[in-house]
Amino acid sequence: MSDQTPALRLDNIVKTFPGVRALDGVSFEVMPGECHALLGENGAGKSTLMKVIAGMYQPDSGRLYIEEKETVLPSPLAAKSKGVVLIHQELSLAEEMTAAENIFLGELPTKSFGRVDWKTLFARAGAILKKLNCDFGPEVKVSRLSIAKKQMVEIARALTVDAKAVIFDEPTASLTDAEKVVLFDIINDLKAQGVGIVYISHRMDEIFTISDRISVLRDGAYRGTLETAETNEDEVTQLMIGRSLDYSRNTLHHDLGGVTLDVRGLSCGKLYQDVSFKVRAGEVVGFYGLVGAGRTEIAETLFGLRTPSAGEILLDGESVTVSSPADAIERGISLVPESRKEQGLVLGMSCRDNITLPQIGDLTTGPFVSNGSEVAIYDIYRDRLEIKAPSWRSMVGNLSGGNQQKIVIGKWLAMKPKLLIVDEPTRGIDVGSKSEIHNLIRELARSGYAVIVISSEMPEVLHVSDRIVAMYQGRVMREFTSDEVTEDTLVQAISGIRAQEAA
């Protein structure tokens, strides 16, 4: 690989923003036919580097080369014309346009007098969607698609040009396991065509499955490159954050309180049926299962977002009806949702305002909000959760993923809940922040909170849970204690194999 000409090379790139040196002399290259993973904690400079490559930012100094020709990319369209495509983590689609229009946005085929050639447009887009094994056509409006399908439209954009380098920024964040397989097939096809792939992800299993080399950024600086086949998670993690992490199973035991939540025979149409479980004060109960198993829907029911068709919910031994989120909050139930940016935060508001939003009515006298009270509440949870933000005035949208998640958790802890439900607690968060969130969940349990954790990552469930509820197609298959569970029995349970069948 070393005697080839790099598809893309960056030499000593520097980029500064007011008060921040985001990139400090970073050099990086991707070879034709290579998948080169770029890793680093949130705030390490990965996104800034990718925006420089994609023409969204201009570097303060340094040079960029495409096939060893020095190139200046003043805009994303200029980058695309040179064969460099960035597939964003945050969707950048025009919701009211069709999939085809989004795929060819800025380069729609035309007929005479500048009219759009719809037949050609739909034919080209349809061929690309077929290659991606998408189950929707080019004529469908993007607003009607699920997040996962919108992500596939983003990916389809990369296949419209003669690409030299394609950058995938957290491409699987919204994809199902089946869609991930399709994505990896696409990446392998691009590699076979000699395209250089830059792959950014916080998921180590993906990195070790798809990449050839791994480069690491820390604090805006390049820290090294490793051959994927010759390294391991621990070495990569140490390069990223300067320390090893504890991936061990939860074996910490402490005294538990009484039963906070008792769910008996809960059903919600076809989403889930006859679900029963308990959560005690001081306990973390993990829910694990494949996409569509019904885990998130149970959480939404407990938070009043769905109405159960059967069953009973008891809080502290009292049968309750939770008819709305306001009702859930009043009863001491809080939900940290799966998508923090879409469901948990107001990105254009400050850290302080996000944390105090659910209790703003209690902090208001007449038409005025008590700023002093709001700041005091923010200060408490900033210190308790070790939130890293320049000040309470900082916009939440400017924080790292880990700190955004802490803001959401702090918002609900400020409501003094009995039960805290955390859905996908570390999605899109780097390994260092992930460890902090895991420690926080365990600490909350030791403080007496009843906690439910829903996660698609087996190591995470094993690491934080005292008990694990395994679900399959809307039903509880088995319940395990942390002492008795094994990876094999957990996989069997979420695959629909009951204990007696496994035996």
TrEMBL record:
Its main location: membrane. Residues 8-244, 256-498 form the ABC transporter domain. One of its GO terms (molecular function) is ATP binding. Pfam families: ABC_tran. GO terms for cellular component: plasma membrane. This is Monosaccharide ABC transporter ATP-binding protein, CUT2 family. It is found in: Cell membrane. It is a peripheral membrane protein. It comes from Tranquillimonas rosea. The keyword Transport applies. Keywords: ATP-binding, Cell membrane, Membrane, Nucleotide-binding, Repeat, Sugar transport, Translocase, Transport. It comes from the Bacteria. PROSITE patterns: ABC_TRANSPORTER_1, ABC_TRANSPORTER_2.
